Each structure stands twice: as C-alpha cells, then as structure tokens.
Amino acid sequence: MEIERRNIQINLQIAPLIDIIFNLLLFFMLTYQITRDPGIKITLPQAHTAKLQDEEKIIVFVNKNNEIFLNEKKTSIDELKSELEKRLKLSQKKTVILKADEKINLGLAVKVMDIAKQANAEGIVISSRIEHK
C-alpha cells in the first residue's frame, strides 16, 4: 500500500496587515492633540477664586530658576520694560498676564509687575490654577 503525500504550501499575505498598520498610524496622527501650552515649565499656584481669562498676546513667564520670558522669548529684567512698551503699543488690550512659578521669590514677581505698570500696562492678571474640590 502506497501513501500519497501532498505538499501543502502556506502563504502569509502581509499586504493587508501593512494596510491596517498604516491606517492605525494615520488615525493616531490625526487625532493627536497638540497643546498650546508653552515649553516653559512652571507650576502655577492654586486659587479657589480663579477665573478663566481670555488668552492675551502679552504674557510674562517667570520659571522656578527666575528666568523671565516674554511670550516664550527669553529676556532679561533690564530689557523687559522696553519690550513690554513695544508690545503694549501694538496691542488693543493693554493687559499683561503674569504666569509665575509658585516657588519664585515674591520680590521678583513684584518687580515684574512694577515694570509692567511702568511700561503703561492698564492691567496685570496673575495667572493661577483652578483648585478642584
């Protein structure tokens, strides 16, 4: 008695698998949200009475290393007044937002607010995090 042997070939179709992977990649790329938060790392202080403010064009950041940024451009305390004056002249709202790390020296925050007033800012908003209960 003779046994008949068959050769069975298995072919793995990889093209549909690649299509699925590219579709998943495209889905994740399109749904990824890019945040508008600046690259400056600060921890805002918390406040119970904090309110959301409209985004302003003139934002002064002070990070925990006491570095000062005006709209994400690093500046020194000496150059801050002249830079603020230029931006306030071009802005309709004459308000400056101060986003300072909670660990900075209070004296530096007061100095920055004083410089903003000297540069003819009509208002200064101190940014904070809303404390969730």
List the helices and strands and how they pair.
Blueprint (H helix, E strand, L loop, with lengths): L14 H17 L14 E2 L11 E4 L5 E3 L2 E3 L1 H14 L4 E6 L5 H13 L4 E4 L2 E2 L3
Parallel strand pairs: 1-7, 2-5, 5-6
Antiparallel strand pairs: 2-3, 3-4
Helix pairs in contact: 2-3
Task: Describe the structure in your own words.
The protein is of the alpha/beta class. It has a domain at 46-130: Nucleotidyltransferase, domain 5, CATH 3.30.420. It has helices at 15-31, 77-90, 106-118, and strands at residues 46-47, 59-62, 68-70, 73-75, 95-100, 123-126, 129-130. α2 packs across α3. The longest helix has 17 residues, at 15-31. It is rod-shaped and about 105 Å long. The protein starts with 14 loop residues before the first helix and ends with a strand. The relative contact order is 0.18. The model has no long low-confidence stretch (mean pLDDT 82).
